[in-house]
Write a structure and sequence with these properties.
The protein has 108 residues and is α+β, with helices and mostly antiparallel strands. The protein has one domain. The protein contains four helices and four strands, in the order αββαββαα. It has a four-stranded antiparallel beta sheet. Helix 2 packs across helix 3.
Length: 108
Amino acid sequence: MRSSPSIVPADRLDRDIYLVLEDFGVRASCAWRETDEADTDLETILRHLLSGQYAYPVRIVCFNPGEGWSRDATPDVADALAQRATDIDVDIPPALQDFIAANATSRF
């Protein structure tokens, strides 16, 4: 039996995809933020976090459907945010400071 080719272009799935779990407070609780497909790479997530587009990030996951893996990327993202803030001397919102303090594995 022949299998049909995928209708999804392979390059769309063979990349690392990052999603942010955000705490919306007592009434709404936590939810995975709806994100445009083009905004799920690490660089864009870091930029959005630093610009305040995520008020209270809780966890960040990374997965690669093409390679078939997923992992908790929270410590890596917290380290990258701390490094970026040090490198470009940017003001970090208080909630993001708390996220970095709670999850970073390196001290910058």
